[in-house]
Amino acid sequence: MSFFLSYLVSKFCPQVPLYKHIADLSGRTSMILPVPAFSLISGGKHAGNTLAIQDITILPVGARRFEEAMQMGSETYHHLKGRLLFLRNMVHMGAMLVKMVALLQTFPGKFFLHIDISLFCVQLVILVLCICSFREGLDLVKEAISRTGYNEKIKIGIDVSATDFCIGTKYDLDYKSPNKSGQNFKSGEDMIELYKELCTDYPVVSIEDPFDMEDWEHVKYFSGLGICQVVGGDLLMSNPKRIEKAIQESACNALLLKVNQIGTVTEAIEVVKLAKDEHWGVVISHRCGETEDSFIADLSVGLSTGQIKAGAPCRGERLAKYNQLLRIEEELGDQAVYAGDDWRMS
Q1: Which domain of life is it from (predicted)?
Q2: Residues β-bridged to residue 33
Q3: What's the angle, vertex CA 177, arms to CA 180 and CA 309, rounded to 5?
């Protein structure tokens, strides 16, 4: 049965909420609302900046309910948005000052202005236009979390998507900067040390695809360190054979599930069971080109995955999933359980 037919059968089953029907199909007696992984800063091949990694996300694990998690995520998102808008305005001001300096220098006999001002303005423009490194992005996110006062309740996740910038056996962290590409190559060992430092310096609890999808050696070693959740996205491709290989080699400890990759709801249930039997985390994920369909919200509750990745708390196709989860929590009432601190083992 195709994914579309599976979806229709489950969605239009009479008198039974979709998430409950999915729970019945999977044999689950408890239904848990997932911790949302809100995207705050995007990079990678689809973004207009020079940040190599795909996403920096926040996980409100300290919330008591999904509704509270939404509030935490939205407040942090808007604090960061306000900060970036301020920096953008600084860019505009810097650009105006640069033009003014150029004009004043055209008439040196009429005005006195130290030339270092123009240098300062140019440096300012470069600084605020460019989120180039892991740390620059993480610093902004950490500051936004601090401004909301949720320091102990929000953790950070990173979607590296390292396959996009892996060249041979090296990782080019400046692959999006034509003038720098090739100057910042990192080996697999270098990347491991980088991730260890980031997990020490920031509240990073989850890293997705830290290495190339065929770099089984390094992802196995890094996962074995037990520093954080290591999510297999490109590594696993929701493919049962690759999941089984990852289990045998202890290559990661969490599954990123994209239902359209695997094909049917039945197969999705099977791979989630496979992952949970190994005490893996499970992340239900949206895809590029999403619609306003909210199916994955019901799927995450029905399978009690504990985690959902549906983007930032903005735009209709993303809010559709979050609003459906709010409706499910309201419908469940006192029986609603939010994954919270148990986000990996729900």
Answers
A1: Eukaryota
A2: 338
A3: 135
